[in-house]
Amino acid sequence: MSYNFTQKDCNFFQELGISEAEVQQQLNLFHKGVNHVVLDRAATVHDGINQYSEKEIDHFIDCFEKEKSSYSITRFIPASGMATRMFQFLHHFISNYQPNEETLRSYLNRKRTYKLA
Predict the structure, then answer these.
(1) Does residue 62 belong to any structural domain of this protein?
(2) N or C, which terminus of the chain has less Cβ within 10 Å?
(3) What is the mean predicted confidence (pLDDT) over 96-111?
């Protein structure tokens, strides 16, 4: 199914940092529904779960402490299967952000996304 967007819609998508194609894909997903996932096995350390050393944990804590004042932090606990769709942008971020190549701020500016801000 194809959706016709107004220029105002396209401007809004750009402000959110998503393409018209991504919006089309999301709307098609709502229209078609979602296939259920059949799990192959439980996630374990080194197979779907990362385990960090104390040094790595301290590094992540330091990074968070340095940046947290720049953001408004809110707790959110999803109450349904909608969490997968709600956090799709995080999956996209994890797949595309290369912390060794750019800062978080430059990534957000380049992608023009405010979902992580």
Answers:
(1) no
(2) N
(3) 83
